[in-house]
Design a protein that fits this description.
The protein is an alpha+beta fold. The protein is built from 4 helices and 4 strands; from the N terminus they run βααααβββ. The chain has helices spanning 32-41, 59-62, 65-74, 80-90, and strands at 7-13, 102-108, 115-124, 131-138. A 4-stranded antiparallel β-sheet has the order 1-2-3-4, covered by helices on one side. The mean pLDDT is 85.
Amino acid sequence: MDDGVHWSTIQEIDLSDGGSFIGDPDIDPKHLPGILEFFASLVSFESKTRTDWVKDPAVYDAMPEIFISFAEKSRVDSGYRLLGRIIRHAFDSRVSTMDICQARLIIDNDNGGDIGIQLLSEIPASMRKSIYETEIAVT
């Protein structure tokens, strides 16, 4: 995993150790509030009407706001189909767990120093025996 043009590495982290990385003395203390804010956003839920349907689908209750916002901004429609795919992949027993993927904390070089995470993981193809190496950076 290389630094991108738009971000720099704060620290490589081992997710199998849970949140113990937060106490690592190599992490600059000025980044700690941003790191905590980022991880808090991964578990923030909002209750509001999302569709014109009589009752919103349960996927909106099951997903943190950061994922719903991402889906809404990445599709022509409301992002509902993408959210369904996220849930389906999360329950795919062939997908490895987060604690064995490579991860690093990053800082955005372009938009005011937002903190995020870069993940590299192997995802099995849906209809073949091949494996895709995937990488994502989110702030």
